[in-house]
Amino acid sequence: MAELEGIYTIWLRENKRFLRYRSRILTSVVTPLLWLLIFGTGLGSAVRFGNIPGGYQAFLFPGIIGQTILFTSIFSGLSVIQDRQFGFLKEILVAPISRPSIVLGKAIGISTTAILQGLVLLILSFVVNVPMTIPVLMASLVIILIISLGLSGLGLLIASFTDSMEGFNLIMSFIVMPIFLLSGALFPVTGLPSWLQVAVYLDPLTYGVDALRGIILQSSAMPLHVDLAVIIFFASVMILISALVFSKKEQSLM
Amino acid sequence: MEYIIETQDITKKYDDFTAVNGVNLKVPKNSVYGVLGPNGAGKTTLISMLCTILHPTSGSAKVNGYDVSQNPKQVRESIGIVFQSRALDDMLTGREHLQMHASLYGVPKDVREKRIEEILDLIALGQKADEFVKTYSGGMKRRLEIGRGLIHHPKVLFLDEPTLGLDPQTRESIWEYIKELNKHQDVSVLMTTHYMEEADKLCDEVAIINQGQIITANSPKNLKRELKADTITMQVDKLEKFTRLAEKLDFVKEIFVKDSEIKLMVERGENLVAELVNFANQNNIFVYSIELEHPNLEDVFLKYTGRTIQGER
Hints:
Largest sheet of chain B: 6 strands, mixed
CATH class of the largest domain in chain B: Alpha Beta
Structural class of chain B: alpha/beta
Number of helices of chain B: 11
Largest interface: A-B, 25 and 28 residues
Oligomer: heterodimer
Number of domains of chain A: 1
Distance between the termini of chain A: 25 Å
Mean pLDDT of chain B: 86
Largest sheet of chain A: none
Number of domains of chain B: 2
Helix content of chain B: 25-40%
Helix content of chain A: over 70%
Distance between the termini of chain B: 36 Å
Order of helices and strands of chain A: HHHHHHHHHHH
Number of strands of chain A: 0
Low-confidence stretches of chain A: none
CATH architecture of the largest domain in chain B: 3-Layer(aba) Sandwich
Number of helices of chain A: 11
Mean pLDDT of chain A: 91
């Protein structure tokens, strides 16, 4: 009971923080729209993309949702670094609640904000002429939740090994961008050179984007149950590992 | 006597550096106990071990009867902590900080709002309670942190350098506040400080720590008395004559002449002022002024460590 309350408290703070940084809410909607409207239209005009009604823009739509969740989840996970710098993490870590509860509260809180962003984007689907129905919307939100839990777990894990925001560029170049570019958000994952193919299938976000594409566009590279199995596995492993690391490393986190 | 904190040879080593070296601390219940020492003496390391933030390398400690290594959760439930560095979230309001803390520490829901109101009253945030912490002054942030540390009615409140970086006026008000707290709430306070004045004014008992070891522990009054060195400063009309005669008095341990002032080092100076004036009069020496100074904790520290507390970092 006390643990549940702890999880709720940390969840609540995460959401309050998100809603209070107005600029973050704005950019989290504007950036995907820029991708869809400029990049989508630009590349869409240059390449023939006949296999999906709505063309490249429609194909890009689930990918950009995946990208938004990726950035939100990892960066919110990394906010633990800031919490540590401002000392607020200490306040949470000396409280009489277990470390896994702290990780879980954080991850669920981040996923909630990711769902809010996903919801806004899904409603904006008319911009790129993708039809949206309530069942599709609900199913998409479930996928978003699962991907976001995994990625926020990854963000928390990275944060627990990073002392300052100095490492931000490294994390961007070596973790976030590869996950984004390899996920097939921007191009189809079939018919690639084999070295790229392997890298693409190692990326957990590939399965998330593929699942979203399957649900929203009824066109996916893999069956939905495979996608689901992979992202659920990824989310469980990430949350588990970061809960473990937070328990083990609690001394050096404070 | 009942002790709320007891440590046994508690030690923290980092590679070849020993931050805290075999400290034995006994903090009486309901007292304000000060750990006094220069920067880098091991104060924060000691307090961190007592708060379960750091594991001791060896030795043990009990807080409110619970072992810090074996029952960290029970220890955490018994204590409130105000860290040396700020531990607030700029994007939350003061009230939200208190609510969050209350639920993390399992304050029962039915008394939560009442406690929060009590604490807000106590820390006098007024209208600011519902504004973001980023708009608060340094003193308000500190008061909020102290208030937050109290909301779950801890048995021990740890204050790590509570007035570091605050202006003198705010510092005075925090002192008043801590005193009031100790008087009216059932809470023992363990604080670290490197301000002598702070330790002197607030603490019932002080432990002086240097290079990870406790050098001495006693009440500020007794510590100063141990020095046996009050200073009597006199101005007289016949300087040389008086100095020559006074040197022979057996209660005068040392005598210095500085400009037109004579400084006599004595024990229990309060009993000697009248005697010195009479002595001067008997020898036809006129006393212009006489002044008695007790040693301060700074002198105590100097005696035990051979350096001033602010001397080096």
